[in-house]
């Protein structure tokens, strides 16, 4: 019996190897030319001691493939949704937590990192007109709700959906977008998201996504982005998480920290094992490429250069020195005067296989690359960093930081205030960013102004008074007719929300921008309130976009750069209290009425049916009221019988 079992397992293994070989031969012969899958992971140490992990899985498909509708890598569920609902572009995100722009940065494309506001946000652009888009949107929300085990179907209500996308709308087609700020993200959303991957969580970078560790992070965001082109389809799945390692470093162990040093010098040692609970044991076999990148921000590199200049140290590893002198794709040398693998402040667990500069037009960071396909179970990949001495640096910041809050008192009126402050800290010393700094901080002063656009969807029960709109720049009010670009879609009660887009151009030396508008709080019916109505109602976050053309000095130094640099920042969700009815009143009325009816009919039945009996068994004569009532009932019943005859 044991021999038979061993032979059976040997046969199964043999057929498995044959199947893998056939797949490899088919790939080599060009049968799977129409599909491609790439996975990558970017790790970035943050100044407050946490670590940012950004997983990115890209699945490309050419619809004119040789296999017809049969796909080997691209998920069938997404392909059917795109075809059935005629989607041109779709963006779905599940977010838990709050992104800290001050400590984690805000200059690079946060949209690419999947940084979204809390809750669920869905945006879809269809290839059909607005008349047909409403039906497609309603069916799309139900399909996605069942696919990702979420309450996306609540977005079928047109009172919560915008019909245009503001600054993000591009191309021709109807746009619908909405958000559920109070939606909770859980493992039931992560599991179907992982099922869309070719290897799921059985192989590749997805094996690091252990549910308890991911959901216990400080920030966690899932994103699914689908874009259909001419004969092609691309699915981009991203997961952005901010984790804190459980391991402490000698740089902070046993040290008494000052109050202002609390967030700067808590730098624990970290690795893939301490962050995700396991190392990488290999790449997904179906992936074309699989890489892990460690990013060192430009400000951290500058601090290391300055510290090395003050205390010069000669590297003892000539190979590491040659590797850190490597060049990027443009041929510019890195020109580093310190050892990337082991220096005075930190030591890497593994030497990188490649070092390059990030393709950023402002402050490029260093990317240390590791090829996952070169590692296996016998040689796992455990990228990490061990700190030897404390070092402080600031993340890359955008030109402004934006916040939003409410004013007013009571349940009658209020105002929405958007406050934009300039980030002056990033314009001094080595941390300054000449692309975003004010004109007074630049040498030539020839940089153009900055275009600021705010886009927000306001539910219909917040009745905006647009004549109270005020825009104040550095204490001076801006004329609404001359210096403002306003686009407004008024709200319709219980049918559509209000959509406001405000755009203006400000000089680079602007320090403060205030935008305020007053509103009335509407009254909802009792069946329109959620179960926890006393908690309040969530106002979706606003999207602030800061756009600037590259300066002439930057174009001359960096060569080809984008025509316009954009930074997108989401504000926090706001909680608004509305007038709520006394939900206990219907219960009190029902209780009082039922009690009165019970007492009345109980007394009536007792008078009709009950008889008093003495102990000797002799019946007592009925009361006069009972006798008269019984006669009246008999008289009524006898008349009914005569009528029927």
TrEMBL record:
One Gene Ontology term from the biological process aspect of the record: attachment of GPI anchor to protein
Signal peptide (from-to): 1-27
Keyword Transmembrane helix on entry: yes
Extent of Basic and acidic residues compositional bias: 320-330
Biased composition (Polar residues): 309-318
Keywords: Membrane, Signal, Transmembrane, Transmembrane helix
Transmembrane portions of the chain: 585-605
Keyword Membrane set for record: yes
GO cellular component labels: GPI-anchor transamidase complex
Region of interest (Disordered), residue spans: 307-330
Name of the protein described by the UniProt record: GPI transamidase component PIG-T
Organism placement in taxonomy: Eukaryota, Viridiplantae, Streptophyta, Embryophyta, Bryophyta
Underlying gene: LOC112274405
């Amino acid at each position: 019996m044991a021999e038979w079992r061993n032979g059976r397992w040997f046969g199964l293994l043999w057929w498995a190897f044959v199947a893998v070989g056939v797949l490899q031969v088919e790939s080599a012969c060009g049968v799977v030319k129409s599909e491609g899958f790439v996975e990558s992971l970017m790790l970035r140490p943050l100044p407050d001691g946490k670590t940012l992990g950004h997983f990115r899985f890209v699945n490309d498909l050419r619809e004119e493939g040789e296999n017809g509708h049969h796909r080997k890598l691209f998920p069938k569920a997404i392909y059917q949704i795109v075809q059935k609902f005629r989607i041109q572009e779709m963006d779905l995100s599940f977010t838990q937590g709050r992104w800290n722009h001050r400590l984690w940065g805000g200059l690079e494309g946060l949209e690419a990192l999947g940084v979204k506001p809390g809750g669920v946000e869905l945006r879809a652009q269809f290839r059909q007109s607005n008349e047909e888009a409403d039906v497609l949107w309603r069916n799309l929300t139900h399909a996605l709700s069942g696919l990702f085990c979420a309450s996306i179907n609540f977005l079928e209500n047109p009172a919560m959906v915008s019909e245009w996308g503001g600054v993000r709308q591009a191309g021709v087609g109807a746009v619908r977008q909405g958000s559920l700020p109070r939606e909770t993200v859980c493992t039931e959303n992560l599991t179907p998201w992982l099922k869309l991957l070719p290897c799921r969580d059985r192989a590749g970078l997805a094996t690091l996504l252990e549910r308890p560790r991911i959901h216990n992070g400080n920030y966690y965001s899932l994103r699914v982005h689908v874009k259909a082109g001419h004969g092609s389809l691309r699915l981009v799945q991203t997961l952005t998480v901010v984790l804190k390692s459980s391991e402490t470093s000698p740089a902070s162990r046993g040290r008494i920290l000052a109050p202002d040093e609390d967030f700067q010098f808590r730098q624990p040692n970290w690795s893939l094992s301490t962050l995700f609970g396991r190392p990488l044991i290999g790449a997904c076999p179906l992936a074309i490429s699989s890489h892990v990148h460690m990013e060192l921000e430009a400000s951290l590199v500058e601090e290391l250069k300055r510290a090395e200049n003050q205390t010069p140290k000669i590297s003892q590893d000539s190979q590491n020195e040659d590797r850190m002198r490597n060049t990027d794709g443009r041929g510019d040398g890195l020109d580093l005067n310190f050892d990337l693998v082991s220096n005075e402040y930190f030591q890497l667990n593994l030497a990188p296989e490649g070092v390059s500069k990030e393709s950023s037009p402002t402050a490029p960071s260093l990317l240390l690359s590791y090829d996952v396909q070169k590692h296996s179970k016998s040689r796992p990949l455990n990228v990490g960093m061990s700190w030897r001495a404390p070092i402080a640096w600031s993340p890359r910041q955008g030109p402004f930081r934006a916040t939003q809050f409410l004013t007013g008192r009571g349940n009658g009126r209020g105002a929405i205030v958007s406050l934009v402050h300039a980030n002056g800290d990033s314009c001094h010393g080595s941390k300054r960013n000449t692309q975003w700094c004010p004109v007074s901080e630049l040498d030539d002063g020839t940089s153009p102004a900055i275009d600021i656009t705010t886009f927000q969807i306001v539910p219909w029960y917040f009745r905006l008074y647009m004549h109270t709109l005020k825009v104040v720049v550095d204490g001076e009010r801006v004329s609404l007719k001359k210096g403002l670009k306003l686009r407004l879609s008024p709200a319709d009660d219980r049918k559509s929300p209000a959509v406001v887009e405000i755009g203006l151009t400000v000089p680079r030396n602007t320090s403060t921008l205030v935008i305020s508008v007053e509103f009335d709080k509407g009254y909802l019916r009792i069946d329109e309130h959620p179960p926890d109505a006393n908690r309040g109602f969530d106002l979706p976050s606003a999207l602030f976009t800061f756009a600037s053309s590259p300066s002439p000095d930057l174009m001359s130094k960096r060569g080809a750069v984008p025509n316009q640099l954009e930074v997108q920042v989401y504000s926090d969700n706001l909680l608004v209290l509305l007038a709520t009815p006394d939900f206990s009143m219907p219960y009190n009325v029902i209780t009082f009425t039922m009690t009165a009816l019970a007492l009345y009919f109980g007394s009536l039945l007792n008078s009709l049916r009950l008889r008093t009996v003495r102990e000797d068994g002799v019946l007592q004569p009925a009361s006069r009221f009972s006798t008269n009532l019984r006669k009246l009932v008999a008289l009524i019943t006898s008349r009914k019988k005569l009528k029927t005859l």
